[in-house]
Write a structure and sequence with these properties.
By secondary structure, this protein is α+β, with helices and mostly antiparallel strands. The protein has a single domain, classed as Cytochrome p450 (Orthogonal Bundle), CATH 1.10.630.10. It is built from 16 helices and ten strands. The strands form three sheets. Strands 1-2-8-5-3 form a five-stranded mixed β-sheet, sandwiched between helices. A three-stranded antiparallel β-sheet has the order 4-10-9. A hairpin with a 2-residue loop joins strand 6 and strand 7. The longest helix is centred in the middle third of the chain and has 32 residues. It comes from Paenarthrobacter histidinolovorans. InterPro entries: Cyt_P450, Cyt_P450_B, Cyt_P450_CS, Cyt_P450_sf.
Length: about 425
């Protein structure tokens, strides 16, 4: 057993809450709902992955690949970009190339990827991110206030889908009142239709799936190409042109952001809110916002919005004492690596090897992380402000079933 594996078990034991307390009962409720969310998405695969991850930190699974379940080893693979690549024949990057083209950042490796990432870096400064999120956040605030005031309840999942759609519209460079402009929810559904093509057991897309993905990208392409050709630096496509991207490169990059970020955001935000409500932490956070960052980071650790990452080994080597061969498909179980550290507890610091692992590590660390965090924090601050004025509770919820990214299908909030 590796030292990292032993440390994981020690950390998990340290997170246990004393029995027969109100906090323990609330914690059990929160964790029970999270388990339902995972089982709703993957009723067979989730228990298997968690069970296999508990056996050994690295395990070869015939016909599927090499499963890596310990945080330190997951990070080692992500950092070893010369030995493990994202754009191999069975890696996640290769899935997207037929849909968005060869230069979409998410499907690139090596020096070409590094240079493109460096050029894109300034697009995700705090000021740039604020300009992308602010209009969508204002629409979110208006809708939540109106529905709680008029109808007494609001479906947070549907609201976050509109928020994500509003951010997509800004990335596409769509003028707010443009003729024929797709509604924010329609834009989300379009992005979701692309990302939903991916399955863990699917190393490649079929011709029909590629055609479906390209059809959705073609709808996105119209406003992107128009904004690109107008060279307006206030639009995201216009800024990509200023950076020297070709029109096709800009289209690929924006399509990649749309399909990678939408599902994970809509999965995480309602789960974050449910976790805080179920565990009895809303009142504390509404009164003391200094505790919000730790609560959000711990919720990211415990829910793991990106439960699995894929890489291809390109050289022979060894991981945790297990031999790895060039050509092996590497399954990085971030879901086990993070959850095995124990229950939801914002007071416990995440060990170094697991920090922000859900956003990746190394050269492929999520470049859109500041954008995702802005959307998360905006939504949570709004809900905490509302809670401080008049407490709300979860009135109804349904988990999503048969989806790639676990989440809630509905999460209705209502005033008491």
């Amino acid at each position: 057993m590796t030292r990292g594996f032993q440390e994981t078990r020690r950390r998990a034991a340290a997170r246990k809450i004393p029995v027969n307390t109100t906090a323990n009962r609330q914690q059990n409720t929160a964790e029970r709902w999270e388990r339902r969310v995972h089982l709703g998405a993957h009723p067979v695969l989730y228990p298997i992955i968690r069970g296999l991850g508990g056996l050994r930190p690295v395990l070869r699974i015939p016909g599927l690949g090499v499963l890596v379940s310990e945080a330190g080893l997951v990070r080692e693979v992500l950092m070893s970009h010369d030995a493990y690549v994202k754009n191999g024949p069975s890696g996640s990057g290769a899935l997207w190339t037929p849909v968005v083209g060869p230069k979409a950042l998410v499907n690139m490796d090596g020096e070409e990827h590094r240079l493109l990432r460096r050029r894109l870096g300034d697009l995700f400064t705090p000021r740039s991110v604020e300009g992308i999120v602010e209009p969508a956040a204002a629409a979110l605030k208006a809708r939540v206030h109106e529905e709680l005031e008029v109808h007494g309840r609001v479906d947070l999942v549907d609201c976050v889908k509109e928020l994500a759609g509003g951010v997509i519209s800004r990335l596409l460079g769509v003028p707010e009142h443009a003729p024929g402009r797709l509604a924010d929810r329609e834009l989300f559904d379009l992005g979701s239709s692309i990302s939903s093509l991916v399955r863990l057991g699917r190393p490649t897309l079929t011709a029909r799936q590629v055609a479906k993905g390209r059809s959705a990208v073609d709808v996105l392409a119209g406003p992107v190409r128009a904004a690109y050709r107008e060279s307006d630096p206030d639009t995201f496509p216009g800024r990509l042109r200023e950076l020297g991207m070709s029109e096709d490169e800009a289209m690929g990059i924006i399509s990649a952001f749309v399909m990678v970020g939408t599902e994970t955001l809509v999965s995480f935000v309602p789960r974050l809110v449910a976790l805080l409500a179920d565990s009895g932490r809303l009142c504390e956070l509404a009164a003391d916002r200094s505790a919000v960052p730790a609560a959000v980071n711990e919720a990211l650790r415990f829910t793991v919005p990106s439960p699995m990452m894929l890489r291809d080994a390109v050289v022979d080597g060894s991981l945790g004492g297990t031999k790895v061969l060039a050509g092996d498909r590497i399954l990085l179980s971030t879901i086990h690596a993070a959850k095995s550290l124990g229950g939801f507890d914002p007071a416990q610091a995440t060990p170094q090897q697991a920090r922000q692992l859900w956003f990746g590590a190394g050269p492929h660390f999520c470049i859109g992380m500041p954008l995702a965090m802005a959307e998360i924090n905006t939504t949570l601050e709004l809900l905490l402000d509302l809670y401080a004025q008049r407490p709300w509770h979860i009135a109804a919820r349904q988990v999503s079933r048969g989806v790639l990214i676990p989440g809630y299908r509905k999460l209705e909030l209502a005033h008491a």
